[in-house]
TrEMBL record:
This is Beta-lactamase class A catalytic domain-containing protein. It comes from Cupriavidus oxalaticus. It catalyses: a beta-lactam + H2O = a substituted beta-amino acid. Keywords: Plasmid. It comes from the Bacteria. Residues 82-259 form the Beta-lactamase class A catalytic domain. GO terms for biological process: beta-lactam antibiotic catabolic process; response to antibiotic. One of its GO terms (molecular function) is beta-lactamase activity. InterPro entries: Beta-lactam/transpept-like, Beta-lactam_cat, Beta-lactam_class-A. Pfam families: Beta-lactamase2.
Length: 354
């Protein structure tokens, strides 16, 4: 494989430091640049989306016309304004990266709320090579015990994959998938762990964790004796969803549907508000919650931001995703992605305030 820079997974829009030294490059045919019309996504009970919002969505979709997806939905306003929504191929199943960490957070808080197996945010968890991932911005060089709360915060605020795998191991991936099913999200997928995701993409069988040594070798571009996979969107180990499903999730979860105690919802919101994609793309002065995601693997790239903002107390829920092949890395396109996402959210916030 030629020695080209690449990045594995990052979950926030600052990008991860976990990057293999080499990647396989594949050439694909150029895609059409014809931009389909932006479609209003609501039913008869919804008003037409504001023209400025639709125009901003069109500008976002132009970044990757054949592999972009977007949905923005504003709830009815106290002033009497009708709900509206607009999107671009909102039912496309795409790779959304660490945006799926919202489900892990929610299930952990549900288990803590129910007292399942003594799980709680204050309970000490083990930070060790059992869970460690290269590039983890919080836990990479740390070993020992820390409260689970720190792992949850690292997972969302810094998209730390070590913290993610600690939290996911505590609740179990099948319990997170059960929550996803309960929410009716048929196109949403999570991996068994972030390390098992990268182990699978590196050529291991599904469910195999190549361990800390294996992660280091992947990071360094060393030969593992395996054939690297290019099917990042797959049915084995992946982080997938649609804009429709991510919007449905945030509308329901931020309304408290999956929690029984108000304090649990407050904690869920507190942690979701710490994601750096929020302050990067949500308009200044507007409260926001969400999670970003991205990946660079072989020739495949992704950027995503999903969540909700409160514009003049009106909930505006959104998901914006780009997938593309070849070309620039996600790290190199973060700026234009953030500008386009901020454009969409800025116009949506202005429309919601009317």
């Amino acid at each position: 494989m030629p020695a080209l820079p690449a990045r594995l997974l990052n979950g926030n829009l600052r990008m991860s430091d976990f990057h293999p030294a080499k990647r396989r490059t594949l050439k694909l045919a150029a895609t059409s640049l014809v931009l389909p019309a932006i479609a209003a996504c609501g039913g008869s009970a919804e008003a037409a989306a504001p023209a400025d919002v639709e125009a901003a969505i069109a500008r976002f979709a132009a970044l990757a016309p054949d592999t972009a997806s977007c949905l923005v939905r504003a709830e009815p306003a106290v002033s009497g304004a009708t709900a509206w929504s607009a999107g671009y191929h909102p039912d496309r199943q795409l790779f959304v990266g660490s945006a799926v960490k919202t489900f892990i957070l929610a299930q952990f808080l549900r288990d803590a709320e129910a007292g399942r197996d003594g799980v709680s945010e204050s309970l000490a968890c083990e930070v060790s090579d059992t869970f460690r991932s290269p590039g983890s911005p919080v836990f990479l060089g740390l070993t020992g015990k820390t409260p689970y709360r720190n792992a949850l915060e690292a997972m969302i605020a810094h998209s730390d994959n070590t913290g993610t795998d600690i939290a996911l191991a505590a609740v179990g991936p099948d319990r997170v998938r059960a929550l996803i099913a309960e929410a009716g999200l048929a196109q949403t997928r999570i991996p068994d762990s972030t390390r098992k995701l990268f182990s699978y993409l590196a050529g291991a069988e599904s469910g195999v964790d190549l361990g800390w040594d294996g992660m280091v070798k992947i990071d360094n571009g060393e030969d593992l004796g395996l054939k690297s996979r290019t099917d990042v969107i797959n049915d084995k180990q992946a982080m997938l969803s649609t804009a429709t499903e991510m919007v449905n999730w945030y509308r329901q979860s931020l309304a408290g549907k999956y929690f029984t105690q108000p304090a649990t919802l407050t904690e869920y919101k507190r942690i979701q508000a710490t994601a750096d994609a929020v302050w990067m793309a949500v308009p200044a002065g507007v409260q926001g919650f969400g999670k970003g995601g991205s990946i660079d693997w072989e020739n495949f790239h992704c950027l995503c931001f999903a969540g909700q903002m409160l514009a003049a107390a009106v909930p505006v829920t959104f998901c914006l995703t780009l997938n593309w092949n070849d070309g620039q890395l996600s790290t190199e396109r973060t700026g234009e992605f953030i500008r386009a996402a901020a454009d969409v959210l800025g116009e949506a916030a202005k429309a919601a305030r009317v």
